[in-house]
Design goal:
Largest sheet of chain A: 12 strands, mixed
Oligomer: heterodimer
Helix content of chain B: 25-40%
Strand order of the largest sheet of chain A: 9-8-23-22-21-10-20-19-11-18-14-15
Radius of gyration of chain A: 28 Å
Shape of chain B: globular
Radius of gyration of chain B: 18 Å
Number of helices of chain B: 7
Strand order of the largest sheet of chain B: 1-2-5-4-3-7
Chain lengths: ~550, ~200
């Protein structure tokens, strides 16, 4: 066993079970006060090396009598004798992975644990090298997102793996979800070979965003990667005022709105179930221009006849008309759109450009839900066609697409999830090369089925019991992890677990917002290299 | 060997009793002594000692009423040195065969009339290094309480160590395993270890 002076053993395994983890008795030389919950340790079993996390630290005595009549305060000799022998520190370690000793760990990397280390196995703090074996090095596919708490090691995500499934970022408002999302988006844009479509409700991802508290402006994607990001806007005026260089303005024609979109807005538009039903009938009867025609229907005999024919009640019709009126008043809704927004977004995506759609001043949820759902549905349909064509063997499959949505519970709550396109995408996973990045502050409001389908979840601080339960549903060792989640600092700490990481890790996201941090991000992405090349080309 | 101090007058597997050649020249409680039963050196620690009359039926009587000092009693009654004798009992804590020390009972007991010598510093040190004899000592059936005896032995041994405090700490830690489950006894021993 490799006892070395730089990393002396902490203690040895004295009991344990796969389900509950192992008890480690600290050596007399290791101070219990140096141990920290959440630190990583390695356990040198006889046949395997285990990688685990300290989940609890306790004080033990061999004889309960010691606790009842401890040595006198001035009896330092007895206290010194008892320390580390009859009284000792104990660690509770949850082994999570095996990182050596088996053939499979050499070929396939760390494996989940299926056993416990044998009695008296020595326990060491995990070294940088161990951490690298587990979390990987930064490379062409892996992106550095932060450091595990209390460690200098870089936590790297395999982004190709990440984007193969839908993922979620959760946390209370103000805990750093947006910062984390920006970092992740940059990672994807650099290293995942996927393109992003971001429905940017609060205008934070395309151009300037504000840091928490609004004290300072921080850069966003387009400023750092102008050649890879296109900003679309629904509110040209607002974008211009903010000095954003937009690539296109999105207008939506009446004809582009389908009954499904109205169904989704039932609650926000205060429509009755019957009114939603009526939309489908009107669409069937009138065809694509149903919305224009419905809005044009006056208070005439003909209208009455039509309603009778479709057996729509007068009050239902009025209810619907009021709702449609709300939609019509949205400034980006026009009778006939001059350009096909979906087509131009698709053009950018096909070229490998990432698209951020800014909502400008239209931050109300009606606009967001309507536009996001409508565009996503049609883009998804295009992807479906392309994917099917590629399966037939004619063309290459389309570039994987990640759609980012905020306030996700509005699309994915149990009531509407079966009807929205996002529900479908989340459930179908990557069948058609489209996945979701869901950002939300109320994970408990999201449909359970969809939560369970998410590959990787990143969560900042949550303190609502139901939200914590929803995020951790299905994770082994849930109760122990609940304490870890509830102990995260309110800012700049997050927990990641799921498909893209070998084990659950509490971490501190990397810096964002300083000149230094921008430089690091852009250097990784090759922008600097490109700029240097451009300069060189210019003078050659 | 020149420094013999006593002679074995009773011997068993776990201990031996020896009579001192000089009245009152009893090695201290807890000190290391040995006797030879070739090829073995049988090593024990003094666990009990007494001085009494040589005739079992005849009890010593008080003689110093008119003397100024107790030394004077012996001066005025020189026969006392012949009528009294000092003896001690040692509990065996190990044996030596050649250069090797074994911290457990020897295969044969001490020989009667074997000479008894004080333990050499080197032997004391090597017993102090391993401390394996402590469990033998803690379980020995002696008239002196085991805690008293153990503490006495460790105090004696600590005298020849280069760092007596560190030695006692190490011995104390060893005792915690021997007395695990009997904290009161452990505390009693530790309380008697201060130098």
């Amino acid at each position: 066993m490799n006892e070395n002076k730089a990393n002396p053993a902490l203690g040895m395994v004295v009991s344990g079970s796969v389900e509950k983890g192992t008890e480690v008795r600290l050596d007399a030389a290791a101070s219990v006060e140096d141990m920290v919950v959440g630190r990583y340790v390695t356990i040198e079993g006889k046949k395997r090396r285990f990688f685990g996390m300290i989940t609890d630290i306790s004080l033990g005595v061999t004889d309960p009598e010691i606790a009842i009549s401890p040595p006198e305060t001035n009896d330092t000799f007895t206290a010194a004798v008892l320390e580390g022998t009859a009284t000792f520190g104990a660690l509770h370690v949850l082994p999570m992975l095996t990182i050596g000793g088996e053939a499979s760990t050499v070929t396939d990397g760390p494996q989940p644990v299926k056993t416990v280390p044998s009695h008296f196995s020595r326990v060491h703090l995990a070294t940088e090298n161990d951490m690298e074996i587990v979390f990987g090095k930064e490379d062409a596919n892996r992106f550095f997102i932060g450091n595990p708490l209390d460690m200098e090691t870089r936590l790297c995500l395999d982004l190709e793996t990440l984007v193969k499934r839908s993922n979620g970022i959760f946390g209370k408002s103000g805990t750093g979800k947006t910062f984390l999302t920006r970092i992740l988006l940059i990672g994807m844009l650099q290293k995942s070979r996927a393109v992003n479509l971001i429905f940017d409700m609060h205008n934070e991802y395309g151009w300037m965003g504000t840091s928490e508290g609004g004290q300072r402006q921080v850069k966003a994607l387009k400023q750092l990667f102008p050649e890879k990001v296109a900003v679309f806007t629904l509110d040209e005026e607002n974008s211009r005022r903010r000095g954003v260089s937009t690539d296109a303005v999105v207008k939506i024609g009446f004809e582009e709105i389908d009954p499904e979109d109205i169904g989704l807005l039932r609650q926000t538009l205060n429509l009755t179930e019957a009114a939603v039903e009526a939309v489908y009938q009107l669409r069937r009867k009138m065809g694509r221009s149903w919305m224009q025609q419905t809005l044009d229907l006056g208070d005439s005999e003909e209208t009455k006849k039509l309603l009778e024919e479709l057996s729509i009640h007068e009050s239902t019709f009025q209810n619907l008309k009021r709702g449609l009126g709300t939609i019509r008043r949205l400034p980006f809704i026009v009778a006939r759109s001059p350009v096909d927004a979906v087509k131009s977004i698709m053009d950018y995506l096909d070229r490998g450009m990432n698209v951020v759609l800014e909502f400008g001043r239209f931050r109300d949820i009606t606009a967001y839900v309507l536009v996001a759902n409508m565009l996503a549905r049609r883009i998804y349909a295009r992807y479906q066609e392309k994917m099917e064509a590629s399966m037939a063997g004619n063309i290459a499959p389309p570039t994987p697409l990640v759609i980012t949505i905020e306030e996700a519970h509005k699309f994915l709550n149990p009531e509407v999830a079966p009807r929205t396109i996002f529900g479908t995408i989340a459930r179908e996973m990557r069948k058609y090369n489209v996945t979701l990045l869901v950002i939300d502050q109320r994970p408990s409001a999201i449909d359970e089925e969809i939560m369970s389908q998410m590959g990787t979840k990143i969560t900042c601080l949550l303190d609502n019991e139901r939200d914590i339960d929803a995020v951790l549903a299905g994770v082994s060792g849930k109760n122990e992890l609940k304490t870890v989640l509830a102990r995260l600092a309110p800012k700049q700490q997050a927990l990641i677990f799921g498909h893209a990481v070998p084990m659950l890790v509490p971490f501190r996201p990397r810096d964002w917002g300083t000149t230094e941090s921008y430089k690091e991000f852009t250097q990784e992405g090759g922008t600097m290299a490109k700029a240097e090349k451009d300069i060189k080309d210019l003078f050659d | 060997m020149e420094n013999k101090i006593a002679e074995v007058i009773a011997a068993g597997s776990t201990g031996f009793t020896a009579e001192c050649y000089e009245l009152f020249h009893i090695p201290p409680l807890g000190s290391l002594v040995f006797t030879v039963n070739p090829p073995l050196e049988i090593i024990g620690v003094v666990c009990e000692a007494k001085t009494e009359g040589i005739e079992p039926g005849r009890k010593p009587a008080a003689r110093g009423k008119d003397e100024a000092t107790d030394e004077a009693v012996y001066r005025t009654s020189p026969q006392l040195a012949k009528l009294l004798r000092s003896e001690f009992t040692a509990v065996v804590i190990g044996h030596k065969n050649g250069d090797k020390i074994y911290p457990y009972l020897p295969p044969r007991p001490a020989r009667l009339h074997g000479f008894v010598y004080p333990g050499p510093t080197e032997t004391v040190k090597s017993f102090g290094d391993s401390l394996d004899f402590l469990s033998l000592l803690a379980n020995a059936d002696t008239a002196t309480p085991a805690e008293e005896l153990t503490a006495a032995v460790l105090r004696e041994m600590s005298r020849v160590q280069t760092d007596p405090a560190a030695f006692l700490l190490k011995a104390g830690k060893k005792l915690t395993t021997i007395y695990s489950g009997d904290y009161a006894k452990l505390k009693a021993v530790l309380g008697r270890l201060s130098l």
